[in-house]
Amino acid sequence: MKATVCIITTVHPSFDTRIFHKQAKTLVQAGYDVTLIAQYNRDKVVNGVRIIALPKPRNRFTRIFGLTSRAFRLALRQQADIYHFHDPEFLLWGWLLKVITKAKVVYDVHEDYPKAILSRYWLPKPLRRPIASLFDILEKLLARQFERIITATDHIKTNFRGANTISVKNYPLRDDLSLKDGDREGQQDCYILIYAGSLAEEYGMKEMVQALEFLNVDWNVLLRVLGKFSEKKFEQEIRRLPGFKKAEYLGWCNRDEVLKNMMEADIGLTYDHPLPRFKVGISTKLLEYMSVGLPVIAPNYPLWKEIVEGNDCGIVVEPLNPKALAKAIEYLLKNPELRKMMGENGRRAFLENYNWEAESRKFLDVYSKLLGGDDV
């Protein structure tokens, strides 16, 4: 009989890359019976994963205080062998699941949440530090009750003590994003820069658009922007910038569309602000650009610099500096052979070291040990 797993998220979309395409599908392929409780429009089985739909909440308040309790009730009905939840707002419910069902519970930590709280724009500034400190205490206290804590980075792992913590990095899927030789289109009549990801102030969208203003007018450059703006006000601010005339906003795109646009691009950009959670994390965008053979430009944070300069796959520059970003862009545009070499170096590093297939072995080992052996 198959071991049963119930994955729970009230924050992330049902087809979140880490949750669905990496973890859930990996478990199904390994022989587990997998249920995913997540926001969706209906119950459905996709790639062997049984999705139990949660409604889309009206606002953050109803999600935190309403959707989590609904997800908890649905999870109880599954009578799973292992429960695996992904959101800090589900911590108390996760503990209750363990107490009531006696099942094994896994807490998947995507971010250094105490540090992340310090930059949450929707929290009043005077309350951020006290809330962060309180959450830090609560998270550590409850985390001790769970059989395993999985963290997305080695740094996050240092927040938790004990042998029950393991880092399973959020590296891209090799088979999904790996570029076959000769697939790069590269036939555009202009140079294409690409940014694919969250469009909030802290991700450097403003600085990337401002950098376009400092490029030599002789360069025919287009910045393709893929993603969803976090706030209407911020979107309006970005659209008013002079550099936005050289940008093409495509909105939210599915995985195939993102891949297609990355394959058409010449340079991949990621330019997160110097916030504590970014300085100690690894940008998934950075690795995805590398996976399709794009040279990258990124801020010079230690982990990012180690990847970019260590593999000679791009340039790191000072953050919050549009002029420095523009200078790096022009340098790569002037040196096509260097762009090609850096792209090839990045792709090679991705295939050898920075892919999900390598991390998935650690992930499956967690489940095997939780069930007391190697058999599913």
Q: How far is it from the N-terminal to the C-terminal residue, by CA?
A: 8 Å
Helix/strand-derived category reads alpha/beta
Along the chain, the helix and strand elements come as EHEEEHEHEHHEHEHEHEHEHEHHEHEHHH
* CATH topology-level fold name of the largest domain: Rossmann fold
Q: What number of structural domains do the residues give? A: 2
CATH homologous superfamily label of the largest domain? Glycogen Phosphorylase B
Q: Write down the CATH class of the largest domain.
A: Alpha Beta
- Beta-strand content bin: 15-25%
Number of helices: 16
Round the Cα radius of gyration to an integer and report it: 21 Å
Q: Mind summarizing the main beta sheet? A: 8 strands, mixed
CATH architecture of the largest domain: 3-Layer(aba) Sandwich
Shape from CA axes? globular
- Report the helical percentage: 40-55%
Notes on the protein architecture:
With 376 residues, the protein is an alpha/beta fold. The chain folds into two domains: 4-171 and 355-370, 3-Layer(aba) Sandwich (Rossmann fold); 175-352, Rossmann fold. The chain is built from 16 helices and 14 strands. The protein has an eight-stranded mixed β-sheet, with helices on both faces. A six-stranded parallel β-sheet has the order 11-10-9-12-13-14, sandwiched between helices. Strand 3 and strand 4 form a beta hairpin. The longest helix has 19 residues, at 60-78. It is globular. The relative contact order is 0.11.
